[in-house]
Design goal:
The chain has 174 residues and is mainly α. The chain is 76% helix and 0% strand. It is built from 6 helices and no strands. It is extended, with a radius of gyration of 22 Å.
Length: 174
C-alpha cells in the first residue's frame, strides 16, 4: 500500500478510539486526519518507505524487550521483597542485565540447523544466568527464587483466561 506501518497502526487505533467518542469533535478530527495521512502516498519510492518502516520496527524490537525486562524485574524485586529478600532494585537490574549477553545468540536463529540450537541454548543460558543473579542479589533460597522468577509469568499467562471466564460469567448472568 505504500503506507508506513506505524502511521497505519496509529490511524487504526485512533479510528477504534474515536468509535466510542463520536460526539467529541476533536477526537473525530484527529482520527480523520490520521486516516487521511495513512492513505497519502509517500514522496519517496515505495521500497524506501518500506525499508524505513521495517528499520523502525527493527529498532523498536530491543526497546520493547527492554521495557518488558524493566517491568518484569520490578515485579520480581517486589515478590522477592515480599518473600523476605533484601533487594535493591538498582542492584537487581545491574546483576540481571548480564542476562542479555547470551540472548545475542538469538541473532543466529535464521540459520538452518544451528539457528534453532542457538536459540534454545541462549534461552536456557539466559534463564540460568537470571536465576543465579536473582539468587545472589536477594539471598533467597532456591525455591523462593524460582517462585519469584516464574510467578509473574504464570500470572501473565493465566490472566487472559481468568478475564475471559469473568466476562463469560457476567454475560451468562445478564
Amino acid at each position: 500500500m505504500g503506507t508506513a506501518v506505524p502511521l497505519a497502526a496509529a490511524a487504526a487505533s485512533l479510528t477504534n478510539f474515536a468509535a466510542g467518542y463520536t460526539s467529541n469533535a476533536t477526537v473525530t478530527q484527529v482520527s480523520d486526519a490520521a486516516r487521511l495521512m495513512a492513505g497519502i502516498e509517500p514522496r519517496m519510492p515505495g521500497f524506501l518507505a518500506a525499508l524505513l518502516s521495517s528499520l523502525g520496527l527493527w529498532l523498536n524490537w530491543p526497546l520493547s524487550w527492554l521495557s518488558n525486562w524493566i517491568v518484569y524485574g520490578a515485579i520480581v524485586a517486589g515478590l522477592a521483597r515480599l518473600m523476605g529478600g533484601n533487594v535493591v532494585l538498582q542492584t537487581l537490574f545491574a546483576a540481571t542485565s548480564f542476562t542479555a549477553v547470551p540472548l545475542l545468540l538469538t541473532g543466529l536463529a535464521p540459520l538452518p540447523f544451528i539457528g534453532p540450537l542457538a536459540l534454545v541454548a541462549s534461552l536456557v543460558w539466559a534463564i540460568a544466568l537470571y536465576y543465579l543473579a536473582v539468587r545472589q542479589v536477594t539471598q533467597l533460597d532456591a525455591a523462593r527464587t524460582l517462585l519469584c522468577m516464574f510467578l509473574p509469568i504464570v500470572i501473565a499467562a493465566a490472566l487472559p483466561t481468568l478475564l475471559t471466564l469473568a466476562v463469560a460469567m457476567l454475560a451468562f448472568m445478564a
